[in-house]
Design goal:
Order of helices and strands: EEEEEHEEEEEH
Radius of gyration: 15 Å
Largest sheet: 5 strands, antiparallel
Structural class: mainly beta
Shape: elongated
Mean pLDDT: 95
Strand order of the largest sheet: 4-3-2-1-5
Number of helices: 2
Oligomer: single chain
Length: 134
């Protein structure tokens, strides 16, 4: 379950309804009832936090966010979007990433899901991470 306080407008996550998962973007938050409105490919739906699921941070998720990939000789992989960089120690291993933006470097941040990356990115770059290209 995702903590309501960890969710920001613009975050990408999955909402579950009748056993089906819908990927969407958070468009509104209802703090009184701890509900989140997701804009899916169909329309907006409201979900309680117990019906929300995070999107795992992996290469496909980064490429969907328009990061570019660059493999290094040591087996590590660098993903970049503008001046923001994220490095995985080896291909497919996102358990101990490093990220930086200008002079702000973060070693092994607690980032395992797309919405966590979006929130770290927003904290560092001061704009929300979206699928829009740079």
């Amino acid at each position: 379950m995702i903590k309501f306080n960890d969710i920001k407008i613009g975050d990408y996550m999955m909402g579950e309804f009748e056993g089906k998962l819908w990927e969407g973007e958070v468009t509104r938050l209802n703090g009184d009832e701890k509900q989140v409105c997701l804009l899916t490919s169909v329309q907006e739906f409201w979900f309680s936090t117990d019906h929300l699921h995070p999107i795992p941070l992996d290469e496909n998720a980064l490429l969907n966010l328009n990061f570019t990939k660059q493999a290094a000789d040591d087996g590590s992989v660098k993903y970049s979007k503008g001046a923001f960089r994220l490095v995985a120690p080896k291909a497919g291993d996102f358990s101990s990433i490093e990220m930086w933006y200008r002079e702000d470097r973060r070693h092994h941040p607690n980032v395992h899901f797309v919405h966590q990356l979006q929130n770290q990115y927003s904290d560092m770059v001061k704009i929300h991470l979206t699928r829009d290209p740079m």
